[in-house]
């Protein structure tokens, strides 16, 4: 017969382990560093390690031959990189989680989540985060880029993050706090996309996630249409993540959706992040030309209909 102390020790041990798809390490991480049975802690970047199903992957052999091709004609051995803000970013021990923490369970390829909380297309460029991805990708790797939450206000109203108004690729403005030249969302996005394409990576532009529509009635942000325009101008795939998530939120209703936002109307819980990730997957599989479509292993997601 188990003693209460033994049961308590067992429960504590289980609780100290990260669950599947949960964070298990990274710079500054103070949570669990071991994973539940059947999963392995996989290093994705210096900030984030994730519990993924199965044993630790064997090192990829060095070869100059072309990669094998899985069912569907898509190149094997590729990685998906994520560029974005806190709505995408890895769990940092806060009450919210980005959708990037959940997307891996629906894909057959590893996910390297490079999203950073609080960043915009401008600061992701200025601080070298885009360059980190550009320098890391290999041919046929995929990159989802999703920004928009932190661009507004201009450099005067939103120092370090705000961008110039408009769609010009040549217009500039000045950040009064630093005196530095600032460009438009279009300029930052197109520069990154073109650099990634030059490395033969495949890019998907995703519109920003919606705020809680039952608490925030401000409407559709301008950066949703900007994201679509950037994708069209650079001839890369586009997912209207905003509309797919909004559609699902409306299906679920206020009582359920309000519970997804524990701290504000922008950042979701892990449960909410999974809803947001599923909406992205639906947007991907609804476009057969999307380069990520062949790598979706679980399309049993909500919403069930294409827009």
List the helices and strands and how they pair.
Elements: H1 4-15, E1 23-25, E2 39-45, E3 48-53, E4 80-84, E5 111-113, H2 121-126, H3 129-136, E6 142-146, H4 154-157, E7 173-174, E8 181-182, H5 185-198, E9 202-206, H6 222-234, E10 237-239, H7 241-252, H8 254-258, H9 270-285
Parallel strand pairs: 4-5, 4-6, 6-9, 9-10
Antiparallel strand pairs: 1-3, 2-3, 7-8
Helix pairs in contact: 5-6, 7-9
Give a concise summary.
The protein is α/β, with parallel strands linked by helices and 307 residues long.
Helix content: 25-40%
Task: Please identify the structural class as seen in this structure.
Answer: alpha/beta
Low-confidence stretches: 1-14, 44-48, 56-71
Could you tell me the mean pLDDT? 86
Strand content: 5-15%
Find the count of extended strands (DSSP E, 2+ residues).
Answer: 10
> What is the string of helix and strand elements?
HEEEEEHHEHEEHEHEHHH
Shape: globular
Radius of gyration, taken over Cα atoms and rounded to an integer in Å: 20 Å
Let me know the largest β-sheet.
Answer: 5 strands, parallel
Distance between the termini: 57 Å
The quaternary structure here is: single chain
Protein name: CBM1 domain-containing protein
Family: Belongs to the 'GDSL' lipolytic enzyme family.
Signal peptide: 1-18
InterPro entries: CBD, CBD_sf, RhgT-like, SGNH_hydro, SGNH_hydro_sf
Structural features, described:
The N and C termini lie far apart (57 Å). Residues 1-14, 44-48 and 56-71 have low confidence and may be disordered. Helix 6 (222-234) links the parallel strand 9 and strand 10. The chain has helices spanning 4-15, 121-126, 129-136, 154-157, 185-198, 222-234, 241-252, 254-258, 270-285; strands at 23-25, 39-45, 48-53, 80-84, 111-113, 142-146, 173-174, 181-182, 202-206, 237-239. The radius of gyration is 20 Å and the shape is globular. Strands 5-4-6-9-10 form a five-stranded parallel β-sheet, with helices on both faces. It has nine helices and ten strands. By secondary structure, it is an alpha/beta fold. Helices cover 29% and strands 13% of the residues.
